[in-house]
User: What shape does this take?
Amino acid sequence: MSPRGGGAGGGGASDFAHADRAAKFILSKTKLRPRVAVVLGSGLGAFADDLAGAVRIPYEKIPGFPRSTAEGHAGRLVIGKAGDVVVAAMQGRVHFYEGYSLREVVFPMRVLGRLGIRATILTNAAGGINTDFKQGALVVIRDHIDLQGSNPLIGGNDERFGARFPDMTQAYSKSYRSIATEESRRLGIEVFEGVYAALTGPSYETPAEIRYLRTIGADLVGMSTAPEVIVARHMGIRVLGISCVTNMAAGILDQPINHAEVMETGERVKGQFVALLRAVLPRIAADAGGK
Ligand code: HPA
Assistant: This one.
């Protein structure tokens, strides 16, 4: 499953070289120079479809990029313009549950860093643990609890990426959270704020696990995002995270969870989601030094 043949640990220096190579490849395909990236989760890829003047690069063409195997993930990088803002949009991501190592999972974020990205908006589908949330709600991530059991920075640290022990006190930028809240109010879209717990999946949680997650302070549960955020912060990239509550978490409603439902809900709220993304982007791009 290893696209670069890399193993755990000790690969810091080569990760840097590999990421640089992939970034150069991508930059050779477009004159656009994005400072902001958007990672589009399950069913939320619509945003990238109408970027103007876009170049669309399938992940398999990018040296070292892992391929997305999850349903609902297109698996391509789109660089184009949303209004005046140049943006790099990842239409789909890879997950730990697909069998990739965490280093591989975060390789695209490394590449985005080497590409010149300074701010990123990470989106995902999540189960709602907080019962104030309803299916279809959008939630700005305030913080995360990473329960994936390992950390993408394990192994040799490459100082060119960042420090050995990166600070995570403001993993999700407070000012970006405010921007998202303000813009959602302006648009009349209700958004909540909450703590995202990252588990590996691919099985959904048990009701007992959801009660445990609620006890430790989680409002949402999902299978992505946290490793990418760790690596983004390692590189000094500022982060906004937004979850779409595609279903209430296990045991809250008297019904099983299925992936089709997750996809359907994503589809239903994608209009709102894209509107919110478009509204926050210019303000985040201004902060990131893009246009
Ligand atoms: N649990 C974990 N991940 C998810 C869920 C869930 O209930 N819904 C969407 N992604």
Summary: The longest strand covers residues 238-248. Residues 1-12 have pLDDT under 50 and may be disordered. The longest helix spans residues 259-288. Residues 13-288 form a domain with the Rossmann fold fold (CATH 3.40.50.1580).
